[in-house]
Design a protein that fits this description.
Length: about 350
């Protein structure tokens, strides 16, 4: 019998042979990796070129994932499938036609915003959330058509709710936690989480310390108890892990993530002026070899094996299967929850 898959809904590590070998040591079958933040289309293509070199150099460890079937292939071959994603719509610039091009190149997720207002929607750091823009609605429809997942991890509440409502396919929040548990600006309200679950969408729980109650000192028990409470709110089949692991990245990358090209000053985002760099990870999760600790924590919190298998990857596997192919003609939004 094939074991349940182990899937991480988002990472942005400093990729290296060490990281890829840790994925294998941890039994990680698939990872959604951020390949671009504020990069233009051409700069994003350069990132894909770099990934192609890694795939060529480490074929025994990693390969590019394009469909959910690649997760099964990864399990069978003892490798990790890498699925591309963008944390900002900068890669499509102002050209809706590039969505299909990017999908052809392997992009399977795209956030409509990264903290700030974009051409498509409002980020969670803006004072006023005006919701999806005219272009945003068109982009959502095009992403639905080609099979690219709408990710609202860094978006404001109104924009997120409108994306859930407007999209004819379930969306994802790949790396965030409940706002009620920890009031980070990017963590999501019960209203959003309930709507996400009812629409068939997915939430990936983040272990990034700025998203955790207690920060770097958050306990594994507290994290796992939070997961079980969210399962009651959203449904146990709508949740997974999205660590937001930024392993080995230099602090200069934090500034690229937060400041990009939109400001001349330093934007501290979810950090602070006193601690502008990457925070210390919780002691129970430092790299890809630590996923077993989360599974053990879920078991100790009272989740049964079926539920653990879902959270650790089975739910993402099903969502990938529903999301990455082109939309069927004549499909209706009401079908989403029944899928």
């Amino acid at each position: 019998m094939t074991r349940a898959p182990l899937i991480d809904g988002l990472q942005y590590a400093k990729w290296s042979e060490k990281t890829f070998r840790q994925m294998r040591a941890g039994g990680v079958d698939a990872v959604h990796v951020t390949i671009t933040y504020h990069e233009t289309f051409r700069e994003t293509v350069l990132q894909i070129e770099q990934w192609n070199r890694w795939f060529e150099t480490f074929p025994d460890l990693i390969f590019q994932g394009r469909t959910a079937a690649d997760i099964d292939r990864a399990q069978a071959e003892g490798r990790t499938a890498i699925f591309f994603g963008s944390q900002n719509p900068s890669c499509m610039e102002d050209d809706i036609g590039l969505i299909e091009v990017l999908h052809t190149l392997g992009l399977r997720f795209m956030q409509l915003t990264y903290n700030n207002q974009s051409l498509l929607a409002t980020g969670c750091y803006e004072a006023e959330d005006t919701g999806l823009t005219r272009m945003g609605r068109e982009v959502v429809a095009e992403m639905n058509r080609v099979g690219m997942v709408i990710d609202m991890s860094h978006s404001g509440e109104r924009s997120t709710l409108q994306a859930i409502e407007h999209s004819t396919r379930p969306i994802a929040i790949t790396h965030a936690n409940p706002h009620q548990w920890h009031p980070a600006l990017r963590n999501k309200s019960d209203t959003v989480l309930r709507a996400l679950g009812q629409s068939g969408g997915m939430l990936g729980f983040s272990v990034y310390p700025h998203h955790l109650a207690g920060g770097s000192d958050c306990s594994l028990q507290g994290f796992c108890d939070m997961i079980l409470r969210t399962a009651d709110l959203m449904g146990p089949e709508r949740i997974g892990i999205g660590t937001d692991l930024c392993q080995d990245q230099p602090d200069s990358i934090v500034q690229w993530m937060r400041s990009g090209r939109w400001t001349k000053s330093v934007d501290y985002g979810e950090g602070s002026a006193a601690h502008p760099g990457f925070p210390r990870m919780p002691e129970w999760f430092n790299d890809n070899r630590d996923f077993g600790r989360i599974a053990d924590g879920l078991r100790a919190a009272g989740l049964d094996q079926s539920g653990i298998d879902g959270v650790m990857g089975g739910n993402w596997r099903r969502f990938f299967a529903q999301s990455f192919g082109p939309a069927a003609r004549g499909s209706e939004k009401v079908e989403r929850a029944a899928e």
